[in-house]
Amino acid sequence: xxxxxxxxxxxxxxxxxxxxxxxxxxxxxxxxxxxxxxxxxxxxxxxxxxxxxxxxxxxxxxxxxxxxxxxxxxxxxxxxxxxxxxxxxxxxxxxxxxxxxxxxxxxxxxxxxx
Length: 114
Known about the structure:
mainly alpha
């Protein structure tokens, strides 16, 4: 198949992996290296995301003409929320008011930003 079509599908896979699984891949290397492509296709199947599985299957067909993985995982693990989002402190106006001497000066804020 054409190199452009492989690159297009690889780019779509890259975007989904980056956004939903916090994984960054090398699109050019994915298209050129069959071993790397096999690993990325397997990684995509492990994520349990329907759209990602479709693109991985399409890339697999473009590059190899069939199935790469010996077996598809029975149940994929869910994608976890990034740790930094779990640890963000809650917005507390009273605590900020205490820091500012008991009053909140609206001129210091843009929306909720200080």
